[in-house]
């Protein structure tokens, strides 16, 4: 079965306000405050704190560049995810992306600006106090903004509204059939993920150079992203008398197994990675459960008896879903 791709739908104005306009305004305000504080800051300023106090130093402009650069880069990333998605809008994932864009801007703005504020009037940045309390304020402020923004946005539409119940495949008594399919990331997804990893590497290198190597453990971030990309590129799905199994083809892990006696319902439908799950690979979406999302297109959607949901995008999803529905019916 080939499903038609949904048309690209305009996001409500409220989504763009929360995801783009407000984060840029918030970030610009924090950058303006940082500029105003420049004359009262020591030279160099503290840019990193250890257990015993400041242990990394750099020019004051670097903090302003960090705030502005992250604001533009992260806001552009969230805006791209929202703009490229297809289907009804806003989904719960659209709302989550918009809320994350604003809350991250608030957290970064408060945390970075506070790191300058505690150094105002000091002759030596090594005398700066710890930032623990301010980090708590930044986290609390981001959470409050996130909750307010979520409820201010329009109600989310259901992503599975067009799901089609699977017709059980006719099986002769005693017959045992197996369905196997392989799915891999699309070219567009691969390019997007590669660009995101490249951006992360650039930011990591900038931070390490700026701190004279003090924050070298940040290398773990792009390494982790590369590892996640490696295990999430190709997936293999299998339906047999025991149920549905989906695993990473290169390594066999991550792996999900849904026993046939836990299957409450099986449907097929069209899935859009950005609109429905906010990206590709092993994903989770509010109200949509977990899923292996390698590309846009048809997918098997399974609801367990306890209400949990699982989705896998794969070719010939109709046949796989029909066989799983047949085995689930036999097991009841």
TrEMBL record:
It comes from the Bacteria. Residues 31-70 form the DUF1648 domain. Keywords: Membrane, Transmembrane, Transmembrane helix. Pfam families: DUF1648. The chain crosses the membrane at residues 12-38, 58-84, 96-119, 131-153, 185-208, 214-235. InterPro entries: DUF1648 (IPR012867). The keyword Membrane applies. The keyword Transmembrane helix applies. This is DUF1648 domain-containing protein. It comes from Protaetiibacter intestinalis.
